Amino acid sequence: MAEYNLKDQVSDKYSLRGRVFHKIREDILNGKYKQGEELREATIGEELGVSRTPVREAFRQLELEGLLKMVPNKGTYVTGITQKDVKDIYMIRSLLEGLCARLATENITPEQMNEMEENVYLSEFHESKGHFDQMAQLDNRFHEILYESCDSKMLEHLLRDFHQYVYRVRKMTLSSEKRGKASNLEHREIMESIKAGEADRAEKLANLHMINAYDNMLKNGLIEMFDQGNDNEGK
Questions:
Q1: CA-based diameter of the chain, in Å?
Q2: Is 230 inside a domain boundary?
Q3: What is the pLDDT along the chain (235 residues), one digit of tens a residue?
Q4: Are 54 and 135 found together in one domain?
């Protein structure tokens, strides 16, 4: 019997099919399944405690996202996120997060503003103590608050997906003392611009924040963790 029974976690938020999809996608993005690795419907279904049908449907959806490749008469293989994908994600995010920050200056609620300020203060505290795990969690939450504050469900959905795609490498970038401190400063400047209602400045700073994050990945060779295993894809 499978230890992880996904049926026990079904809620109104997602159908069983949706939960299977999100679980497999999370495992791909978190590195559980490596690039080029073959995934089998029966094995995944047994691990998740579901039949092969929702797994097959999840595979099809993940192929549309570019995370899997289904090869006729051979199998289904993990494509994952490539170096080019990461570059594209950050370039797109830089534009979308800028737009998000601009909209947030118009739509952020007092409660969201208070939470964003508290997030910045806590991030600076944990950075001073070298608490990198807490910094990663707070970094995630800062961007979630920003997305929620823009009051656009379509933009929020897009940004949450992009944010998740590069979670592994983002967590590693914050373990750098220099980048962690710089990232916190950038968050503070974005927050202060939104609070002051300076839409142009908030947009520019949020855009630059993403570009700086990507440049830091290149500088520290973190981009090289992607594409590993692609040479074996489909073999």
A1: 59
A2: no
A3: 445 555 454 443 468 888 899 899 888 887 788 888 999 999 999 999 999 999 999 999 999 888 899 999 899 999 877 888 889 989 999 999 999 999 999 999 999 999 999 999 999 999 999 888 888 889 999 999 999 999 999 999 999 888 877 776 666 666 666 788 899 999 999 999 999 999 999 999 999 999 999 998 888 777 776 765 444 444 4
A4: no
The domain of 14 spans 6-80
Are 26 and 65 in the same domain?
yes
Question: How far is Cα 158 from Cα 219, in angstroms, rounded to an integer?
Answer: 27
**The domain spanning residue 183 has which CATH number?**
1.20.120.530
Q: How many other CB atoms sit within 10 Å of the CB of residue 77? A: 22
Whether residue 232 lies inside any domain: the answer is no
Among 28, 46, 80, identify where a domain stops. 80
